[in-house]
Amino acid sequence: MATIQTILAKYRPKIDSLDLELIIAHELKKSREFVLTYPEKTVNGKQEAEIRKLLNKRLRNEPLAHILGHKEFYGLDFKVTRDTLIPRPETEMLVELALRKKQETRNLPTGQAGKKQVMYIVDVGTGSGNIIISIAKAIESKNLLHASCYMLYGTDISEKALKIAKYNAKKNNVDKKIKFLHGNLLEPLLKNTKYQIPDTKYIILANLPYLSKKIYSATAPNVKNFEPKSALYSPKAGLEHYKKLLKQIKILNTKYQIPNTILELSPEQKNPITILVKKILPSAKIEFKKDLAGKWRVCVIELIDLSI
Ligand SMILES: C[S@@+](CC[C@H](N)C(=O)[O-])C[C@H]1O[C@@H](n2cnc3c(N)ncnc32)[C@H](O)[C@@H]1O
Question: If DSSP codes are grouped into helix, strand and coil, which group holds residue 294?
């Protein structure tokens, strides 16, 4: 019978140690610390066969998150499948920025004096729901906004992704706080009058597909072969989705205040997105933020003036 140690020794030269330990821990339903502390423990035949099956998947480049079935994001646990993008650490910037901007947004003057202000936070292309669920949890745990004055939405064109997002919202106990809507970008909100409340302020967040054809073709096999192309690739140098979104924001901005739109992008898109924003929303203020690797990653668009 194999021990943890014999499996570790066999696969260590071929698989990253952390991945290896996590896969063994996953199958044994133990922690990684257990695997490291008790290498002499034996595994039964069924467990050994299953561990080998999972390790062989990893050797064929299947992402660890797919093998384990979940991924951590902003300190929370999310189910992921082949229908959703695996949440990336750099996307946590969108959560941080949204939480910071939300407070400033609250203090803006309202259109009609005395009217109660409603704030919509919309995550466009929600995927596994990681962004909007993290925001819901942060608002709840830090008591950042009174429950009655904000609404959280996640939209996606993929019904399969939305199913995972709804599952994740329930798993993280925020399913009552978020509405997940199926459709093209902001269309579900633009088309349905029941979501059109006068005096609403919007914070729009989007990590939409933004890889150009060239960058997508050069992407590593563990991404290209396992994550949905519809979550990664966008025509027109990776900017077609953002162009459509900016046009929808222009329409929305005729009725509502959209003080902040926060977009994740690819570093080389800094100049082209600036040109696009200036063309579609000429009065907007644009700011860029770098990720931890020092690369331009996020574009913050401020739109206060309703008369563009
Ligand atoms: C890059 S993934 C981001 C997923 C998730 N928000 C995250 O940060 O990990 C882009 C998501 O946008 C969705 N999407 C693609 N085209 C869309 C469209 N036209 N309207 C709404 N969602 C779209 C994809 O299905 C995918 O879930």
Answer: coil
